[in-house]
TrEMBL record, chain A:
Gene Ontology molecular function terms on file: CoA-transferase activity
Family annotation (Pfam families): CoA_trans
Superkingdom of origin: Bacteria
Name this protein carries in UniProt: CoA transferase subunit B
Gene3D superfamilies assigned: Glutaconate Coenzyme A-transferase
InterPro entries, per the entry: 3-oxoacid_CoA-transf_B (IPR012791), CoA_trans_fam_I (IPR004165), NagB/RpiA_transferase-like (IPR037171)
Keywords of this entry: Transferase
Family: Belongs to the 3-oxoacid CoA-transferase subunit B family.
Automatic annotation (TrEMBL), chain B:
Lineage: superkingdom: Bacteria
Keyword Transferase applies: yes
Descriptive protein name: 3-oxoacid CoA-transferase subunit A
Entry's Gene Ontology molecular function annotations: CoA-transferase activity
InterPro entries in UniProt: 3-oxoacid_CoA-transf_A, CoA_trans_fam_I, CoA_transf_BS, NagB/RpiA_transferase-like
Keyword Transferase: yes
Keywords: Transferase
One Pfam assignment: CoA_trans
SMART domains: CoA_trans (SM00882)
Length: 226, 240
């Protein structure tokens, strides 16, 4: 069975759906990769929870200013037109519905849109950060993820078994094997890898994949897995 | 009126045992490291302040600042959103030994609780955490068909803040993304103590650029060329 798209290709596919003029929050880690594949000719403004709009890539090593970081505490640069603001304003942008898109990672996504992405086990020190805030407010909440865990368990499930981050919040999932929308409590298959059969894809998925209209091919250019 | 205090030791001299202290900063950005280390110095000399409740986004990093306070036993509780860092040993060890209490609060809810504390709003409703384990035991309500969790304001006895420029009335500006929680915490504490990199006379800050108006500030101390937590951690510094 195919490994499917690598993380860079999943991030590329998600970036194609970010429209010109969008205000976007990318979750810490893998979702940050989406910014690398911004579509030429579109202007996207990135929001980070600690209080910056309009940040750019990391500075050159040695050029970091550690008062200017993102939510993952990595050094950032500013693009022209950037702004700073305090934390209550920053989360007003989130909760107040001002962001167009938030893209987050996931341990599990359920067919009703429930998301589990903040706590995998019970032994580690619990840490939530902005995860539970970010799932509320963005006009579209997308998840990018491998289709299955490293040991082959489905990440798209009927019901989450990990602790929930938010209820009914996810609207679209980009995986290594498929693009799935969540509507009316079910997974709607929009795109799948051209070389995987529907039966094989369903077998890798923990809940029923519904089809409503055409299923397009999920394609991405060859990209190094950074 | 002059809110300037001569020395950093004087600035933290009246913080008692058992105090609740908001500490500005997000990770190392905006962390008032000199004020924190002045508290540690006092604790070493006098045994106070201890049994503190600390409010910060994080629970310290490495062997300096908040992590050092936790490591040497000054804190009994921390209210934060993300008690992990590149070197979280100090908090993790105390937490797993049951020697420090953790109140975990989603980051935006933490900010809004502090803002509410400063604005005189005892409770509010937010969609954040509804239906999750962090909402257990909290009142909920439905508005226009959507579910919300009731959260309470958060106030403190003291706030320790790092700002860039301050005047003797307490007007403040901040540096880059280092403002984060600080303008909120200035509003929510009974006594707000600020270290500023540069002290100016009233009129020295353009009123159009004031971020925290002086009404929210009680005391300022000048710390020129302040240290930066992240830089100290990367240099392997320790204050334990």
């Amino acid at each position: 069975m195919t490994d499917g798209l690598n993380n860079a290709q999943i991030a590329w596919r998600a970036a194609q759906d970010i429209e010109d003029g969008a205000y976007v929050n990318l979750g810490i880690g893998f979702p940050e990769m989406v910014a690398s594949y911004e579509v030429e000719g579109r202007h996207v403004t990135y929001h980070t929870e600690n209080g910056v709009l309009g940040f750019g890539p990391a500075p050159e090593p040695g050029e970091e200013d550690w008062d200017m970081i993102n939510a993952g505490k990595k050094a950032i640069t500013l693009k022209p037109g950037a702004s700073f603001f305090h934390h209550a304003d920053s989360f007003a942008m989130v909760r107040g519905g001002h962001l167009d898109v938030a893209i987050l990672g996931a341990y599990q996504v359920a067919q009703n849109g429930d998301l589990a992405n903040w706590r995998a086990g019970s032994r580690a020190v619990p840490a939530v950060g902005g995860a539970m805030d970010l799932v509320h407010g963005a006009k579209r909440l997308a998840v990018i993820t491998t289709h299955c865990t490293k040991d082959g368990k489905p990440k798209l499930v009927e019901e989450c078994t990990f602790p929930l981050t938010g209820l009914g919040c996810v609207t679209r999932v980009y995986t290594s094997h498929a693009l799935v929308d969540i509507e009316d409590g079910r997974f709607l298959l929009r795109e799948k890898l051209p070389d995987i059969s529907l039966d094989d894809l369903q077998a890798m998925t923990g809940a029923k994949l519904h089809i409503d209209g055409d299923v397009a091919g999920l394609n991405a250019p060859v990209l190094d897995h950074a | 009126m002059n809110k300037k205090i001569a020395s950093i030791a004087d600035a933290v001299a009246d913080i008692p045992d058992g105090a609740t202290i908001m500490i500005g900063g997000f990770g190392g950005s905006g962390n008032p490291i000199e004020l924190i280390h002045a508290m540690i110095d006092r604790f070493r000399e006098t045994g106070s302040p201890k049994d503190l409740t600390l409010i910060n986004n994080n629970a310290g990093n490495g062997r300096i600042g908040i992590a050092a306070m936790i490591d040497i036993g000054m804190a009994r509780k921390i209210i934060c959103s993300f008690p992990r860092s590149s070197d979280p040993r100090a908090f993790t060890e105390k937490y797993q030994a049951g020697e420090i209490e953790l109140e975990l609060v989603p980051q935006g809810t933490l900010a809004e609780r502090i803002r509410a504390g400063g604005a005189g709003i005892p409770a509010f409703y937010t969609p954040t955490s509804y239906g999750t384990e962090l909402a257990e035991g909290k009142p909920t309500a439905t508005f226009d068909g959507k579910n919300y969790v009731q959260e309470r304001w958060l106030k403190a006895d003291f706030a320790l803040i790092k700002a860039e420029v301050g005047d003797s009335y307490g007007n403040l500006t901040y540096r880059l993304a280092a403002r984060n929680f600080s303008p909120l915490m200035c509003m929510a504490a009974d006594r707000t103590i600020v270290q500023v990199s540069s002290f100016v006379e009233p009129g020295g800050i353009d009123p159009e650029t004031v971020v925290t108006p002086g009404i929210f500030v009680d005391a300022l101390v000048e710390v020129q060329k302040p240290q930066q937590e992240e830089v100290l951690i990367r240099a392997g510094e320790s204050y334990v």
